[in-house]
Each structure stands twice: as C-alpha cells, then as structure tokens.
Amino acid sequence: MIITSLFALALASFAPVAYSQDIVYDSIHNATTLTGTWSSGSRGVMTGAGFANPANMTFTYPKTTGVSFSFTDDGFYEISRYRFNGNGSEPTCITGVIGWVHGKYTLNANGSITMVPLGDGFQQVQDPCAAVSNFIEPYNITETYVQWRIFQDPTQGFKLHLFQFDGAPLAPQFLVSPSPNMLPTTLLRNTSAPTTVAKRSLEKRSGNGAVANGWTMGAAAGMVVAGVASLIL
C-alpha cells in the first residue's frame, strides 16, 4: 500500500503544469500574439492619446464608431469604445455610448481572458429620450472573454476575434500596430477603489453618481442623424 502511494506521488510530480500564459500560437487560430493595438472597421477608434482624457473625464469624438483594444506583453490592456444602440420601438431614441478603460489582463489556462480595471475608467451616455439626456459615469467593470482567436486575413493582415462571457462575438479587430498604443498603465485620475462587476454589459448602466452635462436640442438631433447613419452602415 505504501509502495503504491509512493509510486502515484512520483507520477504526479512529472505531470505537466498548465501556466496561464502558456498559449500555443499557430496558423490555425492564434497566428500571432495579442501584444499590440487592434481596431475594428475603418480603424477610426483607437486607444492611446487623442481618444480620452481620464484626468478630466472627457472624450474627443472620432468620426466613426468602433472599438479598439491594446495589450502589452506584461499584462496591461486598454479599451476605447464608441457605438450607437438602436431602439426598435422608438427609432429616434438612439443611444450613443463612448467609453474608455484600462487595467490588467490574464490569459487563463481554459483559453479565456479576464480583464480587471485599474479604477479610473469612465463612459459618456447620450440618450435624447431619457430624463437625463447626457451624463458621464465611472466604468470599472471586470470583463471576461471566454475565447479569443487571431487569424491571418489574406488582405488585411492579422484579425482578432474576441467572444464575450455569453459567447457573443465582438466586431473583429485588425492589428494596427505590433507595439501597443496606450496611455500610461497607472491610475490617471484620483478616484475611489474600483467597483468591479463581472459579466455586465455597457447597456446595463445607472445614473447614480453620474456627472450630467448640458446637451442642446441641436446636439441631440445630430446624435440621431449620426446614429441612423451608423446603423445603416
């Protein structure tokens, strides 16, 4: 009995250990590393300077909607997002959401990615049909992507596919730069400890503690026109 136990223990000591960063890159589904800056569509939305100013919680609006992710090789990430959400029952009630967040990511052994924010992320929500039509709120939510894949597109180069916690795919992103284009990977605004809620979508938001801004009817009309054009495209 003792000999059997010792033999089993010896075998266990030689078992392979799965490290979270031991990802196999191959031409089938991970043609290159995550490191770098990725952007969707026309690449109009980019991480780094020129999109968001975390110090005063402001944005420079890009000309097109889209999403951009950046990853460093030592575990930091940054996300820039800009999109419109349509309303089937009220076609003129188009909600615009622009957001920025950064933090640390982990490549898990099961193939998923966990992204934990540093605590200074924020987003601006514009909804012409809401009681408060324009406000800014913190966005510090832990995000989980159950899968990620990188393919070699024959015409546009490396293409990144991310799948959200429920399996829904994000818009594919293309490698813009192999070196990550990011703001500093430290807290960029004095803030309280981050509140992280896993598996929450951007649409599920609350106005509590939001910073309301003035928004004229002309701006609202512009948002509707831009939103309709974005949805058509």
UniProtKB/TrEMBL annotation:
Any Pfam family the entry gives: Rot1
A cellular-component GO term for this protein: endoplasmic reticulum membrane
Signal peptide start-end: 1-20
Subcellular location: Endoplasmic reticulum membrane
Keyword Membrane belongs to the record: yes
Entry membrane topology: Single-pass type I membrane protein
GO MF annotation: an example: unfolded protein binding
Keyword set, alphabetical order: Endoplasmic reticulum, Membrane, Signal, Transmembrane, Transmembrane helix
Superkingdom field: Eukaryota
GO biological process, one term: 'de novo' protein folding
Major localization class: endoplasmic reticulum
InterPro entries named among the record's database cross-references: Rot1
PANTHER family attached to this UniProt entry: PROTEIN ROT1
Family under the similarity heading: Belongs to the ROT1 family.
Protein name: Protein ROT1
Organism of provenance: Crucibulum laeve
